[in-house]
Amino acid sequence: MAGAGISTPSGIPDFRSPGSGLYSNLKQYNLPYPEAIFELTFFFQNPKPFFTLAKELYPGNFKPNMTHYFLRLLHDKGLLLRLYTQNIDGLERVSGIPASKLVEAHGTFASATCTVCLRACPGEDFWAAVLADRVPCCRVCTGIVKPDVVFFGEPLPERFLLHVVDFPVADLLLVLGTSLEVEPFASLSEYVRHSVPRVLINQAVVGTFAWQPRGRDVVQLGDVVHGVEKLVTLLGWTEEMQDLMRREREKLGAGKS
Ligand code: APR
Ligand code: ZN
User: Fold this and answer.
1) Three-state secondary structure call for residue 19
2) Phi, psi (5° rounding) for residue 235?
3) Antiparallel, parallel or unpaired: β 145-149 and 173-176
4) Is the CB of 219 under 6 A from ligand 1?
């Protein structure tokens, strides 16, 4: 289970960290409250704040960090049952984790849909408008085009239902970089069997690890990359991790990560 905290080392702000989180830096949009930027009613009244934010989060500007590549290494080793992420930055895909192993529970910027006629809008058209500070409009009916990011109150993608088959059979749960504040995603942490170790790597003890801890919970507090590095060393995978990151970074070219 992953949240915005795994992407802050890549330079993308999370939502709730005091001061640095997105929700404390939306003053210029004079929103009624921070979460409004992800609410449909506000979006239809004034889509500009969301698209200004989208431009800041443009996927091309950021690269995966060690946390993403650790999850990719788990996949390469046949150990990743599924990665449930709340993140919309798409860095899990960029790190090479196949879509079949991903549940992007809060949607993704990878595709976009017209809010009027529901036609799919090609990603390049969408991003061309966003990067040119224009509100993307449907070529056919001129309705506003919204990326397939889940706004508050919208249903989660159907793939989220995979949790019904995944969590009961998982034999380890990793929870990385999330405040576990948003439902129904946060409750996933309760769905593994009580015999299954749950490992939280996060700046703070959050959610069920705070108010309903279990005997086999492990909490590694502090920076997520540091925590992942410790785990990789204990696993004896340091060399493999370095090789994988070197290969992937050559593929992606230089850039912030
Ligand atoms: N290392 C470890 N922990 C970190 C790091 C880091 N480098 N950076 C941030 N964190 C922690 C924060 O302390 C916080 O506990 O990650 C967590 C991030 O929490 P949020 O900002 O609330 O992000 P997230 O949990 O992903 O939010 C869930 O809220 O607004 C909605 O849809 C949005 O998907 C998002 C959802
Ligand atoms: Zn349309």
Assistant:
1) coil
2) -80, -10
3) unpaired
4) no
DSSP per-residue codes, 94-108: HTT--GGGEEETTEE
| Catalytic option among 68, 75, 106, 163 | 106
Residues 56-73: tens digit of each pLDDT: 888 788 999 999 999 999
Give first-to-last CA distance, the chain, whole Å.
Answer: 21
pLDDT classification of 22: cutoffs 50, 70, 90: confident
Instruction: To the nearest 10°, report the CA torsion of 218, 201, 103, 212.
Output: 50
Q: Exposed/middle/buried for 52, CB within 10 Å: 0-12, 13-18, 19+? A: middle
Q: Coil, strand, or helix at residue 215? A: coil
182 CB contacts (<8 Å, ≥6 apart)? Answer: 86
Cα separation, 166 vs 103, whole angstroms: 11
Share of the chain above pLDDT 90, in %: 82
Residue pair 105/156 in contact (Cβ under 8 Å)? The answer is: yes
Neighbour count for residue 92 (Cβ, 10 Å): 27
**Secondary structure of 24-82 as H, E, C letters:** HCCHHHCCCCHHHHHEHHHHHHCCHHHHHHHHHCCHHHCCCCHHHHHHHHHHHCCCCCC
The pTM of the whole model exceeds 0.85 = yes
Please name the residue whose Cα sits nearest to atom 23 of ligand 1: 4
In this structure, the residue with its CA closest to atom 35 of ligand 1 is: 86
